[in-house]
Specification:
Number of domains: 2
Order of helices and strands: EHEEHEHEHEHEEEEHEH
Radius of gyration: 19 Å
CATH topology of the largest domain: Rossmann fold
Oligomer: single chain
CATH architecture of the largest domain: 3-Layer(aba) Sandwich
Distance between the termini: 23 Å
Length: 231
């Protein structure tokens, strides 16, 4: 089995990955986001579910090694993106803002629907997450939005006037314990097409990361994602 360490084991997703790895991965070490510990040389892959603010510690953890990395951390800023650019020159990095296989399928359906429906349909994205989520819109929403051309309009308030042709509406809802929902709306004259993905259990993200760890182990340096693993 692939030998892994989990960084961010003090968070919900990190704990879940550690719990679900039994029988699937060989869990060698776990690290809290504030730890600056030495990586066991047996570790082949580090799985990261942390916060951007913890990436300096993770950078210290993997420095001087060529260990592979799987990360599902969202809300990255410019500093973290620069770290990614450096890391991929030394190691294989699997990065995805959403480790769900279903979200990958949603993206494929989104592309197909966009091509078939054309410019005659207005496009809106609505995403739901729990009250504790710190970034908005979600990393998944931002990834999906890259597939839609047009100026992004984040929420609407006041006298906005008529909807401008070619714009894309983006709306974030936060509350309760919602695991994650993404709804894509294509609104035409006389009809509407809605494509949705609802995550009902965070376990799907942990299982996706575990699958990614097996996939990335032994790969050459570079950036990898769901498209590489699933096609």
């Amino acid at each position: 089995m692939t030998k892994v360490a989990v960084f961010g084991a003090d968070g919900r997703m990190g704990r879940l990955v550690a719990d679900e790895s039994g029988g699937r991965l060989d869990l060698i070490q776990t690290f809290d986001t504030g730890d600056e510990l030495t990586l066991n040389p047996q570790v082949e892959v580090v799985i990261d579910f942390s916060l951007p603010s913890a990436w300096n510690n993770m950078n210290t953890l993997i420095a001087g090694t060529d260990v592979a990395l799987v990360s599902g951390t969202t809300g990255l800023g410019e500093d973290e993106r620069r770290m990614l650019e450096i890391w991929v020159t030394r190691r294989p990095v699997f990065y995805s803002s959403n480790m769900s296989v279903g979200i990958h399928v949603l993206g494929k359906l989104m592309e197909a629907a966009s091509g078939m429906l054309g410019d005659g349909f207005d496009r809106e994205l609505i995403e739901f997450h729990h009250r504790g989520k710190k970034d908005s819109p979600s990393g998944t929403a931002l990834s999906l939005l890259k597939r839609w051309d047009g100026e992004k309009v984040y929420g609407r308030q006041g006298g906005t006037g008529e909807r401008e042709t070619g714009t894309v509406g983006v709306h974030a809802v936060r509350g309760g314990d919602v695991t994650g929902e993404h709804h894509l709306h294509f609104l035409g004259d006389g009809e509407r097409v809605t494509i949705s993905h609802l995550a009902t259990d965070r376990r799907v993200f942990a299982l996706g990361a575990i699958r990614a760890a097996d996939f990335i182990a032994g790969k050459p340096p570079g950036i990898y994602g769901m498209e590489d693993m699933l096609g």
